[in-house]
Write a structure and sequence with these properties.
alpha+beta, Nucleoside Triphosphate Pyrophosphohydrolase
Length: about 190
């Protein structure tokens, strides 16, 4: 019997997400010696089971974010049963930030393996699921978000960087690196035009 009040007796405690130094720069989550989750910046597989998406929308040089309960947040949410990723992007963008006609670019994803201890996924143990991050070019904005629980805020880049650093602690390095690549690609495309 352990004196640790958080000891569930279910084996070694999981390690937190950690930054791994190598050529691909990815984060992993381990439970004992088993790797449960890995951050990847490659394309999603064709048969990927995406369970959650997070959006980083831009209109011109400014970020468009959701505001709820006095806090800014990136538009994000779970996919509904049978919903495609594209439909979820449109729904979440409209509901949380009032974004119409979003143009999505995949920036990266967390590849996760469900276990018997998984509480956030209703998947069989061993099932591989993905939580994806998308950069969004805003086509147009409606007057207000479709969900009345949200408001929209337009942020400068420094404020978005602060939001990512303070609110998305486990993935701040991954989100920042993916965002840098997205912004650099946007800048290069604008210079070509």
């Amino acid at each position: 019997m352990s004196l640790d009040p958080y000891d569930t007796g279910m084996g070694p405690p999981p390690n937190l997400y950690r930054y791994r130094e190598n050529d691909e720069r990815w984060t992993e989550k381990k439970y004992g010696d088993d790797i449960l989750a890995v951050w990847q910046m490659s394309e999603l597989p064709e048969d990927a089971v995406v369970t959650r998406i997070t959006l980083i929308p831009y209109r011109g040089e400014k970020a468009v974010v959701a505001w709820q309960d006095g806090k800014n947040a990136l538009p994000e949410g779970d996919l509904q049963p049978g919903e495609s990723v594209d439909a979820a992007i449109k729904r979440i963008a409209s509901e949380q930030a009032g974004i119409n006609e979003p143009i999505a670019t995949h920036l990266g994803h967390l590849r996760s393996k469900a276990t018997v201890n998984s509480t956030t996924q209703a998947q069989a143990p061993g099932t591989i699921t993905y939580q994806a991050l998308y950069g969004i070019e805003v086509g147009s904005l409606s007057d207000f978000p479709a969900d009345t629980a949200y408001e929209r805020r337009i942020l400068l880049q420094r404020d978005l960087n602060t939001l990512i650093r303070e609110r998305y602690i486990f993935f701040r390095k991954e989100y920042a690196e993916a965002l840098d690549r997205f912004l650099l690609d946007r800048l290069k495309a604008n210079l070509r035009d």
